Amino acid sequence: MGWFFSKIKDLFTGVKDNPEFKLEFEKILYDADLSSVLVEKLSSSINKTNDINEIKTVIEQRLTEHLEPYQCALEIEEGLNVVLLVGVNGVGKTTVAAKLANLMKNEYKKKVMLAGADTFRAAGVDQLEHWSQKIACDFFSKGPGADPGAVAYESVSMALQKGTDVLIIDTGGRLHTQIGLMSEISKTKKAVSKALGKDPQHVVLVIDSTQGQNIKNQAELFTKSLDINGIILTKFDGTSKGGALFGAIDLVKKPVFYVCTGEKLENISEFNAKNFVHKIL
Ligand SMILES: Nc1nc2c(ncn2[C@@H]2O[C@H](COP(=O)(O)OP(=O)(O)OP(=O)(O)O)[C@@H](O)[C@H]2O)c(=O)[nH]1
Ligand SMILES: [Mg+2]
Fold first, then answer.
1. Does any domain span residue 75?
2. What value does the mean pLDDT of the chain take?
3. Domain boundary residue among 50, 70, 90?
């Protein structure tokens, strides 16, 4: 259970005789990075009752309602669809690339290509190529040290040539500075747009659910530099600091396409607001 709800639960134990309850309750919500609108909504909803179980149900309902607008499938259109995966190092981008490729190929019956634009680390490209062999889908990269923009541009050209339906581009998350990382990802995106003749359909921010307060900083960093159009949450199987995810989703204000719950290819499912809230409560 995340610290957010364990704190609320601790507070519940003293609910009846604690006059400071409401203030403390709101402080927990603000500390969890929930927006003031949501904090007020939750706070006024619990006014009507002193029953702990009822309060839990009300919180669950309000949070679910709040997240339902973000429950949208990743849409695949006719022609080549490009999915550019971005996020800081270690959040699970390469694993997500593999999971999406597997899902698109085996469930949606699409012709899929994986492209390795994480050329900063030699192992980054190898890791993705290994996945592509396991999935038996096309793979494109230019080896360690190559310009990620060139990988992106050429992979789009190749995908267009081959009649690929879904091209998933994995990017690096590890550069010396955040500014360097952002400018490189922006260049990679521009290279995609140039080769595709329009912006990539999906620029997806990958967020590690276990990273607590860092999640909001990452969301801020990426939304400032890029037009993010959706989120994929990873490591939702681990100890999740749930509250921070609400803050990040509120900040990005884009759909959450998928939630990942493990390291295996099949550990990915569409985001469902009700299940999500239920799991972190
Ligand atoms: N438990 C769990 N582990 C995951 C999940 N997704 C990825 N991992 C693990 O997290 C680690 C990092 O995953 P990667 O996919 O390499 O992350 P990345 O964002 O590509 O990392 P960099 O390329 O270094 O930026 C690996 O050990 C993965 O197996 C998940 O949903 N659950
Ligand atoms: Mg990677």
1. no
2. 88
3. 70
Q: Same domain for 38 and 154?
A: no
Residue 163 falls in which region: left (phi positive, over 0), alpha (psi -120 to 50) or beta? left
Q: Which residue has the higher pLDDT, 43 or 260?
A: 260
Residues 6+ apart with CB under 8 A from 115: 139, 140, 141, 151, 152, 155, 159, 167, 168, 169, 170
Ligand nearest to the CA of 88: 1
Residues 34-81 pLDDT 10s: 778 888 888 888 776 667 778 778 888 988 999 999 999 999 999 999
Which ligand lies nearest the alpha carbon of 261?
Answer: 1
Q: How far apart are CA 199 and CA 150, in angstroms?
A: 16
Nearest CA to ligand 1 atom 21: 90
Alpha carbon nearest to ligand 1 atom 6, residue = 92
Choice from 263, 264, 271, 276 to test ligand 1 binding pocket (greatest atom count within 8 A of CB) = 263
Number of H helices, E strands in the chain: 11, 8
Is this prediction's pTM over 0.85? yes
